[in-house]
Amino acid sequence: MDLLTGTYDCKVDAKGRLMMPAAIKKQLASVLDDGFVLRRSVFQKCLELYPMQEWQALMQKMNKLNKFKKKNNDFIRRFTAGGAKIIEVDVNGRLLVPKDLTVFANISKNIVVASAINIIEIWDKDLYEQAIDDAAIDFADLAEEVMGGQDDEDYGIS
């Protein structure tokens, strides 16, 4: 699967169904039939949609953690218990967002579907805009810290 690109304003219907934006569906065409895992975000009040192959790769990485370390066990349990649900795109190109995840992310009607490299974030539109506004103040410093490594060729953007 290629890396995902784009941010889209969408709506969720009264039954909690989200119509996948056409551009995202096109980018995910090769993995649509494999299904997805939808879960709560670790750091934000949004949802993360993992294409199944990305979820499997993450689970394989987590499976390598030493389970005889309590912190590792606690992390695995809490991460996988984050409301993780297997979901599929229906014949009309919609995803059904489970009620518990809708409540967690404060999703009502207007949402934002945003690519995050290899996964998709699903946000309540107001919370997304607030998160972007809040982050804008510190973004230059963050960009320099994360991506501005002079000594490491792998991280510089030019």
- Give the assembly state of these chains: single chain
Major sheet details: 6 strands, antiparallel
- Unreliable spans: none
CATH architecture descriptor: 3-Layer(aba) Sandwich
Tell me the β content.
15-25%
Domain count: 1
* Rg of Cα set: 17 Å
Number of strands: 8
Helix content, binned percent: 25-40%
Q: Trace the largest sheet across and list its strands.
A: 1-7-8-4-3-5
User: How large is the count of helical segments?
Assistant: 6
Return the string of H and E elements. Answer: EEHEEHHEEHEEHH
Shape from CA axes? globular
Main structural class: alpha+beta
Overall pLDDT: 88
According to CATH, what is the class? Alpha Beta
Distance between the termini: 25 Å
CATH superfamily: Transcriptional regulator MraZ domain
Which fold name corresponds to the CATH topology?
A: Chemotaxis protein chec
TL;DR of this structure?
The protein is an alpha+beta fold and 158 residues long.
Helix and strand topology:
Layout: E1 7-11, E2 17-19, H1 22-27, E3 36-40, E4 47-51, H2 52-63, H3 70-80, E5 85-87, E6 94-96, H4 99-104, E7 110-116, E8 119-124, H5 125-136, H6 139-147
Antiparallel strand pairs: 1-7, 2-6, 3-4, 3-5, 4-8, 7-8
Which features characterize this protein?
23% strand; 6-stranded antiparallel beta sheet; Chemotaxis protein chec; single chain; two-stranded antiparallel sheet; 8 strands; 158 residues; alpha+beta
Question: Care to describe what's here?
Answer:
The chain has 158 residues and is α+β, with helices and mostly antiparallel strands. The protein has a single domain (7-142), classed as Chemotaxis protein chec (3-Layer(aba) Sandwich), CATH 3.40.1550. The chain has six helices and eight strands, in the order ββαββααββαββαα. It has a six-stranded antiparallel sheet. Strand 3 (36-40) and strand 4 (47-51) form a beta hairpin. The mean pLDDT is 88.
